[in-house]
Amino acid sequence: MLLTITTTQSPATDLGYLLHKHPDRFQSYDLSFGQAHVFYQEADAGRCSACLLLDVDTVGVVRGKGAGEGLLAQYVNDRPYAASSFLSVAISQVYGSALQGRCNDRPELAAAPRPLSARLDILAVRGGEPFLRAVFEPLGYVVEAERHPLDDRFPEWGESPYYSVTVSKTTTLSDLLTHLYVLVPVFDNQKHYFVGDDELEKLLAKGKGWLSTHPEREEIAKRYLKFRSSLFREALARLIDEEQPIEAEGASDEQPAEKVEAALENPLSLNEQRLGSVLAALRASKARKVLDLGCGEGKLLRNLLKDKQFEEIVGMDVSIRTLEIAQDRLKLDRLPTNQEGRIKLIQGSLMYRDRRLEGFDAAAVVEVIEHLDPPRLLAFERVLFEFARPRTVVLTTPNREYNVTWENVGAERLRHPDHRFEWTRAEFQAWAQAIATRFGYSIKFLPIGPEDGELGPPTQMGVFERD
């Protein structure tokens, strides 16, 4: 496999200082899986291209820890020529100083952005060119991709998953190498070493400052961590914590964005009305075992805990930090003995089936779905209505039509910066009715808050009852 990094900023030979590799030398390095060679394809004032060539010893790898699921796969695979986790290891070991942003001879060069391009020959893209672009383009890269056929002699066999890929951007070399280090293994089906807590820490360290806001962060984390659900869930929780940092000690626990939304709703006491309506619907369902999905800092949980009807209460949220705040606010460590067994907080994602959510009478989903990317709603629907399948689901979401009543929101903006969408009444009812039909529920819709004759209420609620 070959990685070629090129710059055209004069003097382009500064790339040699940044990589700590002299353009006039051919250098080789022994790695645990073979050898890496560094050489320059061209090096003059106007253009400089440094090549990192990996020579993977597939037999040696098999004799070590193994490289495949079965005996044949260990020897017959794309490891020698397709960019994978081997390349990430080579970047960290051969280009380690550049990856860390250090340039001993010319330290001022490391922090200076310059036009850079990286060409990968070749990259196995599991997900095709759309996924390739979805990963690199949000980071500001221009992407060029040339897909290769399975066999030139037999065009009817179709295209292969292999591409020659070039990504270009004006950036620092450290940032370019960091993105390659994290993202190249994301396109591959397997890593050549065990994926554990160390890999989680590497992902968070190398993804700091960009991964938490990436629109494909969930897919990147899932693939990077080799689909290990426990690691992925923790990564996602910590990435969300990074995206929405808690204020300094002594400040309010609420996020600035949440304060904006609360300021809109406060004159109406809308949050209290919302919680009261949800609580009334749960009471009417005669539920005894209740889930609060996306429980946040525990406002609904506090009300549920006060009502003796609810014998088992579980609050789930994806953010560990938010759950810690909920635990403190609910004073769970100081509950009387007869109360402490009634409530439990768990960390989890609504994107993945979780058997801990099964067997409950009712579930509350209060102002949650609008924080999900629309393509992920289908996963949420199956997790809740197909797998967990409580008898009753009480779900609330903003009514976008009502936004025009707030001067600083209007018709075009959303109430909260983290909202991915907000639905009109017709859109919400169409979505909810389709779910009810598909999964065997009936549905009724209720308004929450002061209702405008034309615009409807500020919050809309759907109560699903299993047939």
CATH class of the largest domain: Alpha Beta
What is the 3D shape? elongated
Average residue pLDDT: 85
Walk across the major sheet and give the strand order.
Answer: 2-3-4-1-5-7-6
Could you please say which CATH topology of the largest domain applies here? Rossmann fold
Pfam family, one: Methyltransf_23
Catalytic activity: small RNA 3'-end nucleotide + S-adenosyl-L-methionine = small RNA 3'-end 2'-O-methylnucleotide + S-adenosyl-L-homocysteine + H(+)
Keywords: Magnesium, Metal-binding, Methyltransferase, RNA-binding, RNA-mediated gene silencing, S-adenosyl-L-methionine, Transferase
InterPro entries: 3'-RNA_MeTfrase_Hen1_bac (IPR024026), Hen1 (IPR026610), Hen1_N (IPR024740), Hen1_N_sf (IPR038546), SAM-dependent_MTases_sf (IPR029063)
Question: Quick recap of the structure?
Answer:
By secondary structure, the protein is α/β, with parallel strands linked by helices. Helix content is 35%, strand content 23%.
Give keywords.
c-terminal autoproteolytic domain of nucleoporin nup98; alpha/beta; 467 residues; elongated
SSE order and pairing:
Elements: E1 2-7, H1 14-19, E2 27-31, E3 34-43, E4 48-56, H2 58-63, H3 71-75, H4 85-94, H5 96-99, H6 107-110, E5 114-124, H7 128-136, E6 142-149, E7 159-171, H8 173-183, H9 197-206, H10 217-224, H11 229-243, H12 256-265, H13 270-284, E8 289-293, H14 299-306, E9 312-317, H15 320-330, H16 337-340, E10 343-347, E11 362-366, H17 377-388, E12 392-398, H18 425-439, E13 441-448, E14 459-466
Parallel strand pairs: 8-9, 8-11, 9-10, 11-12
Antiparallel strand pairs: 1-4, 1-5, 2-3, 3-4, 5-7, 6-7, 12-14, 13-14
Helix pairs in contact: 4-8, 9-11, 10-11
